[in-house]
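Hi R.,

Here's the chain you asked about this morning:
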Amino acid sequence: MIAQFYTFLRKLGRFFKTIYRHFFEDRCTIRAAALTYTTLLSLVPLMTVSFAIFSAFPVFENVSEKIKTSIFDHFIAASGTVIQNYLNTFIAQTKHLSAIGSIFLVVTAVLMMFNMEQAFNAIWRVKARRRGLATFMMYWAVLTLSPILIGLSIVLSNYLANLPIVVEAASIFGLDKLFTYFFPYLLITFAFTIFYVAIPNCYVPLKFGFFGAVIAAILFELAKTGFGYYVSHFPTYTLLYGTLAVIPLFLIWLYLTWVIILFGAIISHVLATGHYFRSAVKIDGFTHAYRWLHYLYQAQHKSKALSLSELIHLDKTDYQISPAEQIQAMLDAKLIIAARQGRYLLTRDLNELSLKNFIDLLPWRLPNHKELKRYNTPHEKKLAEVVYRIESHCQQELNLKMIELVK
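And here is the predicted structure, written out as tokens:
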């Protein structure tokens, strides 16, 4: 029992250490600053698109203003009313835009999504970006569906909260305040889950995206409460800037929000890749690809395809190359193809693929036989024997003096 507890503590410590390392390795603080600047430019276009969608649906007609107020109250920590008034004024001005101006408005909103994808792709170690019409359609789907789903959740919540049976049950058990406080948390969790699952250009398991969103939503609510308390009790910015204090305060809040969102994305990535429970020894990129080729070959014989998450969790060895980068390298080498629902299949006949072809196709170096023996698995030992024979045959040529080559 004690040994299991210490094992749990070690895994927990390694989990937090991995999150801390990834957060700074991925330069999340710098990315949060860049996203803050982009958000400031894109906020009016984003809100215009969202509120235009609200007005297009009759179900939101009677509660449109309530939805707007609710979103501002839930997502902005302090001075929400002032910011709301400013944004409403700016949004009202967009009605006078020409057709070309409206197009640029939509493009600015989409660029915000592009920068978000870049940040999330960096966290998931994905180098390939979405391209073409599919990119625009995905961005537009997130921009349009998110407000609709958030609006529906607010309408549904208000409807449930006013049902006599719910009101009576809440008053009996004293849950009326709990419902009021718990709903904003669910709203934020829902929004963050959409971000983590839909925006990265790779398959993100819903459960890991949701777990990262839960943690980020908790931190967001704590930060909102703490920030509101700071603004109310320590009016430093008000003394310095007067009525303009709302601007730096809003920028700081946007920055904190993005730090929290990226932190939640890091948690989703660490959970999905399972670095925190893996061995201290990291296998090199070539052996990593060789091992995954074996897993995919076994799955092929069972008429199955494997997802990235399944490939990762088939063993507990850590990697020198990130899983997302490895899967991309194998896709580029045309060793595998992407199937449905983020799964992968072998695309090469291994009867026709030689070891030389395999080495040439991958960007990773071939490890020596001593490195391969260290991994201590049957397939790595088999490869180590082959590599040892290659090294033995090459030894004579490698003993050639350099003077013979350079003179």
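One quick note: The chain is about 75% helix and 5% strand.

Cheers,
M.
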